[in-house]
Amino acid sequence: MSEEGLKKTFLGFDFSTQRLKAIVIGEDYVVQQEADVEFDVDLPEFRTSGGVVRGEQRGEVMAPPLLWVKALDMVMDRLVVAGVDFSMVEALSGAAQQHGSVWWAKGSEAKLSKLSADDFLHTQLATVFVADSPVWMDSSTSADCRALEEAVGGAEELAKISGSRAYERFTGPQIRKMYRSRPRVYHAAERISLVSSFACSLFLGRIAPVDLADGSGMNLLDIHSMKWCEKALNACGDESLASKLGEPVPSATVLGSISPYFVQRYGFKPECKVIAFTGDNCSALAGLRLRSGWVGLSLGTSDTLLLGLQAAAAPPAGHVLVGPTKQAPYMALLCFANGSLTRQNHRDRLAGPSWEAFNELLRSTLRGNMGYMGIYYDTAEIVPRAAAGRWAKPASAETEARALLEGQALARRAHAEDMGLALDASSRVIATGGASVNKELLQIFADVFNTPVYVQDQHGNAALLGAAIRAAEVWSEDAGVKLNGSELTVSPVATPYADAEAIYTPMLARYRKVIEDIPKLN
Ligand code: XUL
Questions:
Q1: For the chain, first and last CA: distance in Å?
Q2: 94-152: per-residue pLDDT in tens?
Q3: CB atoms within 10 A of CB 192
Q4: For the domain with range 288-456+489-522, which CATH number is right: 3.40.50.360, 1.10.3470.10, 3.30.420.40, 1.10.10.410?
Q5: What are the tens digits of pLDDT across the range 337-349?
Q6: How far is the CA of 97 from the centre of ligand 1 (A)?
Q7: CA nearest ligand 1 atom 1, residue
Q8: Which residue, by CA, sits nearest to atom 10 of ligand 1?
Q9: What is the CATH superfamily name and number for domain 3-281?
């Protein structure tokens, strides 16, 4: 590649719950600079804990949007200190925590378009928000969820239309709560953004549209027609709601050029393109370059599966979203509450505080565990929706150790297939998160999915990397300039044994039978 070619850079942001991160990648997708602002530590004046504040009512969790604006001022300065040359940035994009809503006062758009480069954003935008932003940790909208489901014909119907039954943190129920309990705020808001489209607006100098992928986390979008669902809008607000939300756009949209504020203050070139921002999970799918039939497996406190899908299923649990990239027209998000914490609890019980000792137990058992299966929910499970409990007959420590991990992997595969995941010879599982260093665990996933498991080793934060990669890829397609960084650096860490299919297909069928008998929560 020519020297000139390598000089193009792309900027990505991640407005996550606890921090704002920024990353610069080159045309080869190699990370050049990074900067980070931690809300609680760097911006103590907002008095957040873990990036959020608790409301007066039970379950209310929000964040002051000005915190995010001030964090952007700060992270930009940190990028300057890190030596970023903004005049080389061809395009930027971003990721943000999903579901949160930002409520803009009348006249905000005019303010965004006339910012003075001599001053910080946060001093100029101090009065543009009419309320704190409810965020994804908020669980105060159960009544609104039931009302929304009823208005569209039931939970299953809502799942068919919007890709999810109603969830407390989703933006539709949150808007309904605002309309119902704080009508003055609702009416004072000229526009409502998601955290992603709000962040994008700061760079664009006008209110940015919601992108279809993050828009699918609202319970308001018809994920088939890609338009707002009128019944859902009517259930959550009045006739002004559609115009408050604006028309959604595909995630791979070049929205325009960067606002003059950033050109004058930081030296961006005026043609630098702003690509629609999206939700963090959607961005992670892009960062892992997941295609249809591939699985992103994040092994954390809870386990999250990101699935690239060809078509939208109507999920009994979990979420189907419009895909953020061309490689996956739809995606699914499945969160299993019992992940690493549950693995760790049982490791301690069966082997003490050492993974080595636990893995020793695993090695003294046979794959398939002679048919012994166990289901361990130390905390209420999300997929399937079930109370805490344990469904396993007493057995030796060795047998239980394998039963726990195989049971988890079987659950991940069964519920992924329920979402429409179709595994084939080209499929891959790409593991991330703390437990992705555990080779024994990854071998079990490889066998149960009968698919090789890879570990992403380019960057620990797939959502952040995905933001910069989306900027690069959407820019490249729009500008007709090919970039050389489009392949993911991953290393295969576990491949299935030849007998994996024969062992685990019958176990998968048995898992489905076993969970039928587990009492489900509504
Ligand atoms: C996804 C969700 C969280 C947030 C966290 O539905 O609520 O993963 O996106 O940032």
A1: 56
A2: 999 999 999 999 999 999 999 999 999 999 999 999 999 999 999 999 999 999 999 99
A3: 26
A4: 3.30.420.40
A5: 999 999 999 999 9
A6: 6
A7: 98
A8: 97
A9: ATPase, nucleotide binding domain (3.30.420.40)
